[in-house]
Queue: 3 jobs
Job 1
Amino acid sequence: MKINKTQWLMSLVISGLLVTACQQQSTKPKLNDENPAAPINNAVIQKSPNDDRTYAAILLPNKLQVVLVSDPTLENSAASLAVGVGSAQDPISQPGLAHYLEHMLFLGTKKYPIPDNFFEFVQTSAGSTNAFTAYDKTNFLFQINAAKFDEALDRYSDYFKAPLLDPQYADKERNAVNSEWSMNKSQDNWIIHTLDGVTGNPANPLSRFSIGNLETLVDKNDSKLQDEVKSFYNRYYSANNMRLTLVGKQTIPELKALAEKYFADIPNKNVVRPKVDVPGLTQAQLGKSIHYQPQKDLKQLYIDFPIKDDKAFWRVKPNEFVTSLIGSEEEGTLCEQLRKAGLTNNVMASVSSDEYGIDGYLRIQADLTDAGLKNPDRVIASVFAYVELVKKQGLNDIYFRELKAMRAKDFANESKTDPLQQAISITNKQFDYPVENLLNSDFVYDHFDAPAIQSVLDQLNTNNARIWYINKNEVVDKAIQHFDGKYSIRDIKPEERARWSELGNKLVFNLPPENTLFTDKPAAIVQNQFIKPHQVVSEKGVEAFLTQPEFYREDKGELSVEVNVDFAKKSPKNIVLYTLLSDITRQKSTTLIDRAERASLGVKISPSNTGSQSFHISGYTTKHEELLQSVLNNFANLTVEKNDFADAIDKYKRAIANNKKAIPVRQGFANMSRLLGESHWTDAELLAAAEKVTLKDVIDYHKAVKANPLIRIYAFGNYTDATVARLAQISAQALPGKRLPSQRKVAQYIVPKQGQKITFKDVVEQADNAVIQGYWADKKSDDEQAQLVVLNALFGNVFFSQLRTNEQLGYIVGSAPYTIDDYPGFAIYVQSTNTELGKVKARMDKFRVEFFEQLKAIDPAQIEQFKNSEAASVLQKPTDFYKEADRYEGDFWAAHYDFTARDRYLASLAKVNKENLIALYQKLLLDEKGLSLLVQLKGAGFKE
Ligand SMILES: [Zn+2]
């Protein structure tokens, strides 16, 4: 399959539930000339006809380039400012300095000296803020209710004018950075990224440590940390080396006035944006085999072809052309043949041409089966042989025309994005693209540029390839400084090359045919009669609901189909079986999924929250009937062979084992969710069940699912009643059943009881401790659910500032409302590097008591303010089609067919006041009148 690098980056981001003040991000974006295109004030930013936002670009007198985005329908406004400097510029004496400075900026400015003050300000206004440090830029961002934007910008812009960088907080923040490092140092994605640098040219900055920790961020004889921080700031934080984006409901002149008011006085030091001009891969690093023993049980093989950065060719996209051909899953292609031969579960091709700055690689990544692990030569030979075929026959403009047509259609139908995401994306792009193309740069396929493509193909030289063997059996001898795990590296031997070439000569591949799922024929836009969910079919074996868009009447649809059964979570054995069945179904539908994706149609195949098999189709609606028919037929006629079973069970066991590698607080939440859900079995119990499961069990389970399912369909988008009725008929024919809609199975949870206590303790392999405490009321209540949302806004930032910023108890500190089946709940959590479990818990307990006093003293106006911001963001027009699609879906799956969840929430929110907050806090968090659940995980860094 083809992937793009943003997907890889996403894997580094901590889930939204865990509030962290920053992420040190290992991206490798771009170096470009620092001077923006001359007359940007008149630039016309090209946008999708589907996009009704207004755009403008200005260059402030201090040479700060700003993009303004106006959309009157937005309730939240967002800002993102990036500085064109990152970890690549860390002084050699202070590894991690750029990242550490990013943290220090949060700790007070001349006008607003209190540390974390901005964080608190934003959170109490239902907003959010964060920052990240990349290889070549550092991005600071926030989102807040529009009414607060002016005030927020005043605080935020002061970061870039007068940060205190107060040495009295230096140790606290060094600890925060150290905890962040401690959390990431055992994560394979970080380690592999580090190895890119470590095995590359030692003169390239990627070879150095970028996160920083207590050991690297210290005073040295000729390098005082605080002096270095100040000098780094003074040297690079200059208006002309920054890019800013403001997004909001304000008009363009209003946004322009805000930009001028707050950002025009950022000093311009006329700095030249630093560039990395040392290559990351020289002849000395090519033709290597790299061996890494991963922390998780991974079985992977990477084949990297070094290439030069070619971002300048973005208008013709040679890299995308090549990875698209290499990643095809059509019959006879590399990915399909390897999968069919049982050697791989998945193969992906991606490009990071500026991984090191001026160079990078095209990577083909194979997830191996056991057979593939035993026969890596065959996989490598296949990759080499297929790459040769692409070089010989791939330079064909029909592939280009297909990409161009598809991306043109995508741009024409482009959805508006969330304001914060858009601000971040535009800011990052401002460094690399002309202002005119900030929105369409990913969609432009100007012309078929054979020489540009040929130049990429020429660089796919098998003699230069770097081959990574990533699995538990690798023999390794070298430690990786600052990270867990070991690796080894050696030259590829001539006899290996001879073997691959001999094997490759016997292999036959072909390039993909034209895509049958792509159509540029648009579907008619339907009347939107049913903007609330409306039942179309309800009969034996099938029920279907349709909702049409109120706002985004476009040719898009989201279609969810569940093959509902009531026994999936009855036993650990069934849990294993439904997971295997779903995985095998997905695996056997790979060609179809990939073909659909290449026509911008999404197909997801996964178990639902009842453990039933579900199918999800999204995108342009013209082909949805055809696609649904195909996926359901694939499932109904699925044959499970011995090797399908062997691969699936191996993946299942490794996935369970890999749960232990997640950061402790994640593991804690997984345990909490297990204890609250219907399938309460531990990983050990599931593994024991998996040991006994056979191929026949899977086949029998599949038969049992087919014996009497109830099909549940939820369709949102450009469909009519008649279409949905047909979709229901197609489904019922493929998987006929007799169960009535009233017999549907919905997700179940435990019922919290008065005074109930559940505790769970375990040890984790990671260094850190984690404690999570949850509290649930023993009666369902809309009002209390709303109260806990408000409480969270008041509690969360005080909890964070006190335990994290002031006391440095842990890097991850936070709280979250946690409703189960309309029983109101609230969870608080801490992950600590430096404090024993008992003490962490005792501190959290004490804080609960302390906060009660603060709550009693709180200004009711603060509560009203949050309620208003929250209500406004719930009521705001969804930012795009897919956001609108979510509105009633939760009600549907819970079978709450009055579809009132949102209205009830808003009504309850309006009733929240100081008195009922105090009463609930007392009842739930102090007197613990309902269910209390405590999860404690002891880290390896601590004794009993
Ligand atoms: Zn950080």
Note: Confidence is low (pLDDT under 50) at residues 2-38.
Job 2
Amino acid sequence: MSEWENKIKSKKIVVGVLGLGYVGLPLVREFTSAGLRVVGFDIDQKKVDTLNSGRSIIKHVPHSDVAKMKESGLFEATSDMSRIRKADSVIICVPTPLTANREPDMQYIVKSSETISKYLQKGQLISLESTTYPGTTQEVMIPILETSGLKAGRDFHVAFSPEREDPGNKQFTTKTIPKVVGGLTKKCLEMACQMYGAAINRIVPVSTLEVAEATKILENVYRCINIAMVNELKMVFDRMGIDVWEVIESAKTKPFGFSPFYPGPGLGGHCIPIDPFYLTWKARQYGMATRFIELAGEINTNMPHYVIQKTMDALNEKKKSLRGSKVLLLGLAYKKDIDDLRESPSIELIELLQEKGAIVDYNDPYVPQSIKQRQHDLQMKSKKLSEKMLASYDVVLISTDHSCYDYDWIVKNSKLVVDSRNATAKVSSGREIIVKA
Ligand SMILES: NC(=O)c1ccc[n+]([C@@H]2O[C@H](COP(=O)([O-])OP(=O)(O)OC[C@H]3O[C@@H](n4cnc5c(N)ncnc54)[C@H](O)[C@@H]3O)[C@@H](O)[C@H]2O)c1
């Protein structure tokens, strides 16, 4: 047994997780549950303090889990990056957004690599998890790490293992989602597989760093394109008087060759609206166009406009214009049962409604007030739902289908409901006021 394997088996390894967000924190939880010691690194001192006080920073990792991690004595968060020296590995989970020109914004990967290079030690394993274009680890991360004077694959080890976190998914957790791992060398791959294998049920080794990077991109492009396809079909079938959601339910009874995807008011989240464009950017360097991705992007970004048009048509039927109408938007988060606002189409819907002169409020049990985003700052607070309150709006627009909403009650007490998620599918009475969008 190698010294590394022995260290893992005897639980003497110290795992560093850099970036304690939606991806980093669940990973910390898995390693500590497996009995390994974890030091969490973050530049956000408030996050560090909150975690060290035993409280969580994201809804789907409960406070009790963070308290347990702390009580076990296995986890500590810190903003003192010099402690990287003492970790056996550092797993990087920092954001990878797009710039204003929709190009990969590598600043977080660059900065965290620069930080690690200052404290890098012989024998350490550095694993990148952030979603990015194929080639990032070799072309961006390794050259920065090597400014330390140490050589990748000889003095320190490098892996790429894409995060497949799906916040709010009750069926799969970080532990049960198979983990794809690529290494710079055979030894890097072996070490990374052993480390992740201590906490995660199934490890899927692949031959190169680039295959691991491209795997994540394929998964997200697949979702992005399929969602665009059902969004387009939603609009086409609507013209034909056919309900796309019923069609999908029917098609998914086919036991092979069909995976259901669902239409919505537009794409949201940190991944699907963004990651495919990392590949588009990289493909250009090879003189290639990613036409499927561009087309899917075009259709998906048009969806909020489609929902607004349907809302205007529904009001028009009632002899009302959108200008001056009171609109209540339900669900600010980008998908159901989570508190994440990143790239949420609800934000765009609110801005479009306001641009057209509507008076807009929102309710979201998970988002008591809007949080400033890179390009948006709504500065709004969630309004408490009541029968009287619902009745005071000209239209209630369902943007996110949170499970905790009582849709029968909402329909019963509203004047008009525009449903962009088929959330009211099971509502039996009052259907005449529902318009699907
Ligand atoms: N959120 C998801 O569901 C999800 C799923 C799969 C993959 N991913 C990918 O995982 C990566 C991380 O996403 P996330 O959602 O966890 O982001 P996040 O914004 O929730 O967390 C990132 C954390 O990194 C910290 N950070 C930024 N720069 C740092 C630095 N230089 N040093 C230390 N800490 C730093 C931030 O303060 C923040 O706490 C992204 O590439 C994303 O595409 C996310």
Note: The chain has a mean pLDDT of 96.
Job 3
Amino acid sequence: MNEIDWEAWRAEFPGLQKSTYLNTVSLGQLSRRSRSAVNRFLDLWTERGASAWYSYWLAEVDGLRREFARLIGASPDEVAIMPNISSALAAVSSALDFTQRSGVVCCELDFPTLIYHFLAKAPQGVQTHIASSPDHIQVPLEAFEAAVDERTALVATSRVYFTSGYIQDVRTLAGIAHGCGALCLVDDYQGTGQVPIDVKRTGVDILVTGGLKWLIGGPGVAYMYVRRELASSLAPTVAGWFGHRRQFDFDPHNLEFRDDAQRFEAGTPATAAVYAAKAGLEIINEIGPETLRRRTAALNQDLIQRLREHGCRLRIPSDPERHAGITILEMDDPARAVRLLADCRIIVDKRPGAVRISPYFYNTFEENGIILRALDEILK
Ligand SMILES: Cc1ncc(COP(=O)(O)O)c(C=O)c1O
């Protein structure tokens, strides 16, 4: 294996010189490549005007689709480019029939937007079961197994839980869903990029993920994978011209969906965001998800060891193989800790009862030392 020059990659992210940035769980750093890609977009806007759409911008969206498909082992025709996860969920679930099967199974460690999406459908008869977590770190597969039955339409949960970093076994979960005739949807916002995934191997039907954290692409772009056979069988009831088979015919009388996952796309994409996102994804694919995982896991295990030596209370999985790059430090007053760390130019974030620290490939082992020394002072 070739040695990776991590210092060179670090230099690609100028923001890392301004602070000890350990907060990719909230927002990945801006690369020089994304900045110059957005500048390229702006130049095209100035120089070409509307013709930029046909000569460049639509091709850039397709390039982004290909780049994402490559990362997750899908085919580009199985990928829809969406503005955020909430819109992706709205588009795909508008095509699901909840009249025969009304059940959706989520869990209490899922990011709320996923659960809210289905709770909002209660007036239409959708029943959302929220599986419990005994330790606030993980949800046993048995809890899903117990909740899924022949009334379940969908198992919808995360691969990496945002408040514990636990990596759920979504392959087994997809098996549990399919065993009862249900579909499996995975929210992979905290997984894609930092933990490798091959969607075909996992067997999940739908995967949604966003670009602004571990895919270092900034806000404005989310991705949705829909298994090919499923995509072509689903007719969304949220629609727009980008999902039409002959978009530029402008036929007001007939709505004919595309055959592929693009049928879930509705309106004009945020093109500046597409340029930033594609440059970020190129970096992720260039380094490669396996290498990223090794590097991030090593940084994280080093951090955990140091935190343990300082007697910190951690809320993390016991098995490092099941732990992604999010380390949760339990604290009585996390807001104060985040504020005091920020005063020392150390950036982390908080969730109820905890501080989240999330080193990524561009961070260093020295930075783990920096935050530990600052925490020492704060904990005093
Ligand atoms: C696991 C997870 N899902 C979803 C989201 C956000 O969803 P949306 O793109 O709708 O804002 C986040 C954001 O923090 C997240 O961590």
Note: The mean pLDDT is 97.
